[in-house]
Specification:
Keywords: Signal. The protein has 295 residues and is α+β, with helices and mostly antiparallel strands. 36% of the residues lie in helices and 26% in strands. The protein has 8 helices and 9 strands. The protein is globular and about 65 Å long. The chain starts with 5 loop residues before the first strand and ends with a helix. The N terminus is likely disordered.
């Protein structure tokens, strides 16, 4: 019987091993996989770096991506990667894993680059298996490594499609910026978890407190909508998705408390959010919120 795994584990360690051993198995497995001459024709590599100077010290962030299309007979090579991932999982402070055919909601969005001005999302495809690992750099407490592997075994061309991503950059959780202050204000106002925690995408509980009537609904709706429209929210990784998810939950669970006219007012308000949203997943969430009220 197929074992279905869904992990959202955050492990905080009092002490971390030295950098040379922290991700030794996974780093070696990735190197072996990407330099294997028998696989080279099936792998496409992209690589970028950014360097910054802070207090006279040079720092470099990198992003490595390996797209692969392997014959299914090479599955054992992929298994070596996932085995190494499992071996090193205990040194990570956060591990996310999901097998195919479970869900298509985003697991997380990973910010990277020296200014953390870029991001890549994982988890939005139902047919993909996902494995992500986050490891802090023991030599620099403000930086971290991210390793992500996804693959799909169901394809018409009988191939294993997938990707390996390696990221090294400042750790968003360790940065103190104006954006962080805005994020904290939004969290306190809406009483949602830390937006860097994957649980925020799956909580499904909405804001604290009960919605017993249309007045309660509009108070909650207005708070969510105002936060979503805040120009600084778009700078905060994951917050807009969390707000959109809460709108969906609220409209689905409590939309029946509203009259037809009240529902139309809310739909107009959500459509305004939709027009100002570029992220595809967030737009789909807003469409779900609208459809939950359009009856």
């Amino acid at each position: 019987m197929k074992t279905i795994r869904f992990l959202a584990i955050t492990l905080f360690c009092a002490t971390l091993p030295m950098a040379s051993s922290a991700q030794e198995n996974l780093k070696k497995a990735i190197a072996d996989f990407t330099t294997n001459k028998e696989l080279s024709s099936f792998i496409k590599t992209s690589y970028s770096t950014e360097t910054s100077q802070k207090n006279g010290v040079s720092k470099q962030a990198y992003y490595k991506s390996y797209n692969f299309e392997l014959p299914k007979g090479k599955l054992k090579e992929l298994k070596k990667l996932t085995a190494a991932f499992d071996m090193d999982a205990d040194v990570a402070y956060k591990v996310l894993a999901r097998d195919a055919d479970i869900d298509d909601r985003r697991l997380t969005s990973v910010a990277y680059g020296e200014e953390l001005d870029k991001s890549i999302a994982f988890g939005s495809y139902r047919d993909r298996n996902y494995r992500l690992m986050f490891v802090r750099d023991p030599q620099d407490s403000l930086r971290r490594y991210c390793y992500a592997i996804w693959w799909t075994e169901k394809s018409k061309d009988e191939k294993l499609h997938g990707n390996i991503t390696e990221i090294y950059s400042p750790d968003p959780q360790m940065q103190e910026t104006e954006t962080d202050n805005v994020a904290e204000a939004v969290r306190k106002a809406l009483k949602i978890p830390d937006v860097t925690d994957s649980k925020v995408y799956f909580s499904g509980k909405g804001l604290n407190g009960e919605i017993k009537n249309s007045s309660d609904f509009f108070k909650r709706f207005s708070a969510l909508r105002s936060a979503y429209l805040n120009r600084n929210v778009s700078k905060i990784n994951g917050v807009k998705t969390a707000l959109a998810s809460k709108l969906v939950d609220m409209c689905r669970d409590h939309g029946k408390l509203l009259s037809k006219e009240e529902r139309q007012t809310c739909i107009k308000g959500i459509r305004e959010l939709y027009r100002g949203t570029n992220e595809i997943y967030d737009r789909e969430l807003l469409k779900l919120a609208i459809s939950s009220l359009d009856f």
